[in-house]
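Please produce the structure of this protein holding uracil.
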Amino acid sequence: MPDRPGVPERPLWEQQAERNAALPTGERLQKVLAATGWGSRRVCEELIAAGRVTVNGEVAELGRRVEVEHDRIEVDGAPIGARPDLVYYLLNKPAGVVSTSRDTHGRQTVIDLVPARPRVFSVGRLDADTEGLLLLTNDGALANRIAHPSHGVEKEYLADVSGGRVAAGALRALREGVELDDGRTAPARVSQPQPGVLRITIHEGRNRQVRRMCEAVGHPVRRLVRTRIGPLSDRSLGPGEWRELSPAERRSLVETVAVAARRYDPPT
Ligand code: URA
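Below is the modeled complex.
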């Protein structure tokens, strides 16, 4: 029924959107999504209209306002990390620095290399003698999702191995899986950009995995550098340098984790 005779009734969603927009507090959801790298406001409105965005578990309607400090906002089931108190640092860990928060031998830790406040922790670990990219954050929910071994976020390493050029048979063994004392490794992507240097991409996160894999095929690692975590890489970060993730990087990390989680735990 039209509200007034002669005036055509507006679609319900439009009325709802108007009512939501008139709520006094919070920021508009599409603005928050755009600020966290999901695209232009128009694109974010389309995401909302398509029912892909939830707030505190409920599908959000266009015009929804949110309190980023309190509301849990998710796109395709993955938290967007819009809270201003959450920080995400990408660090290029130098060799000799440990990934734990404190070291019993008094060695420098990765926590010493980034701002002291807010307190962050590393997502997964690199051995003290391994260099390269490490993510540090205070976002426990995202960290758990990334570190979950079955969610399989890819990590890429460059390994300088001893013993010279790695033969085709050893490369095949690395690709198909090698038997370690804690079980066979999952299939890996392995290439040899130059003799004795391997680019290895794995999605498991076992202790000293790449070193043990290379050793198992007769080529112990001399130097190991992590060059990529899921969508994150940065060749311009020098050893010991860090920077915050851009909104677009945060978004693609969230998306990568959501895709990996769906592969592991498909919706019914
Ligand atoms: N594999 C290793 O052997 N060491 C690391 O630090 C990471 C992966």
